[in-house]
């Protein structure tokens, strides 16, 4: 990611297929959970289609139609995620949107979680140099250590909610932070908060104790 992208810029880039895999995963997860974002995404796709209509026709490979048909069975990144019924005893894993579940080896308990205080994180394996993709779980009422960013961070709220100096964010929200943001996200008292986080550079702790721990801590 270059500069400080807005959510709409990310949606447009995703519609054009121009995002690195970790960023595309965050945007696809956001789309699966947020109806308003899907509406805007559909508009960007329509604009892209209008632009393509102005281009001269290109010669296609002989098997292009067959390859297109073979892809129609896969779930599109902008499609709404089928949600379990409210009265189902669905686990958090089954409430995760399909784009994200496809990157998990199984239930969340099978991941390798690293815990510090009231925060736990599990790194996902995406082979894209320069990016780190993690699931972050913050216990109810607990905080992520105060920090800023040496690059960009995308956070999608999967369960629960958290707040920081800029506002409150709940399931489906996509939150963007960069070096201009120095914050301490705190999970709501009502329950744990689970997020998907994608960074393109390390975080830097800024609290009084954090400044001394920076050389030893990787977040």
UniProtKB/TrEMBL annotation:
The organism's superkingdom is given as: Bacteria
Q: Where is this region: Disordered?
A: 74-99
Q: Ranges for the ChrR-like cupin domain? A: 126-196
Q: Matching Pfam families, A to Z?
A: Cupin_7
NCBIfam families, alphabetized: anti_sig_ChrR
Q: What is this protein called?
A: ChrR family anti-sigma-E factor
Name the species this protein comes from: Benzoatithermus flavus
